[in-house]
Amino acid sequence: MIQNQINNLSGIITLPFFERMCQKISISEVKKTYELFESLYLNGQKQEVFYLLHTLIAFSHIEIPQKYYSIVGNSRMREDFVGEVLTDLEDILCEFE
């Protein structure tokens, strides 16, 4: 899967995931969660961030494209996906400030 496909997949997943989170927690809590993920990511814990996101996405019960599951088994794709999700979340959160 090339970077553009990972970017598109992140775009498909991130907004519904964000909307579902906002049904359960406040925007400020979503922002704190984003900041935690960003900190972990910048400290090299990209795989850990992926598995946290993966779990939260699964619990959110949003529709997941089949292509997402090809990322789960590939560490490089997981890292790229996390980077894209964090970028997308940052963009979404900026719209609420």
Number of strands: 0
How much helicity do the residues have?
Answer: over 70%
Q: Total number of helical segments?
A: 5
User: How do the SSEs run, as a string of H and E?
Assistant: HHHHH
Coarse structural class? mainly alpha
Shape: globular
Radius of gyration: 12 Å
Strand content: under 5%
Description:
81% of the residues lie in helices and 0% in strands. The chain has one domain (3-95). Helix 1 crosses helix 5, helix 2 packs antiparallel against helix 3 (46-60) and helix 2 packs antiparallel against helix 5. With 97 residues, the chain is mainly α. It is built from 5 helices and no strands. The protein has helices at 3-24, 27-42, 46-60, 68-72, 75-95.
